[in-house]
Specification:
Elements: H1 16-67, E1 70-76, E2 81-87, E3 94-100, E4 114-120
Antiparallel strand pairs: 1-2, 1-4, 2-3
Length: 126
């Protein structure tokens, strides 16, 4: 009688199906985790912008009143930059500060190339 001495085959790795299944699961988890993270980063950038804008605007107003000059704020929408200038009588505009506007912040009029806000800094005379 002849007995077979075949040993059972031991697997040396994962099958193609197991590998594909793991790859699909990992890809799905990465997509699920990445999408909310980008949205939350945009939300945080927007929330961090407004206190900066308030300090930017308040400092410009105080300086314009002190110097008795006109304050001019221009928002360059394509470049996402706000620029604060004082305009003295007969002088050249002086750039006081620039503030980066987060790209996630949307303006009401998308075709607007720039937005300007002017305020007279002439305070009461003593």
């Amino acid at each position: 009688m002849v007995t077979s001495t075949r040993r059972p085959r031991r697997s040396s790795g994962f099958t193609l199906y197991e590998t594909l299944l793991v790859l699909v699961i990992v890809t799905g988890l990465v997509v699920l985790m990445a999408t909310p993270r980008a949205a939350s980063q945009n939300l945080l950038a927007g929330r961090a912008f407004w206190p900066s804008w308030q300090r930017f605007w308040t400092a410009g107003c105080q300086l314009a009143v002190r110097r008795r000059e006109t304050l001019h704020v221009e928002v360059d929408i394509p470049r996402h930059v706000a620029e604060l200038r004082t305009l003295s009588r007969g002088g050249t505009p002086q750039v006081l500060a620039r503030l980066a506007v987060p790209p996630s912040l949307r303006f009401g009029e998308g075709t607007l190339s720039g937005m300007a806000i002017s305020m007279s800094g002439a305070g009461p005379r003593h």
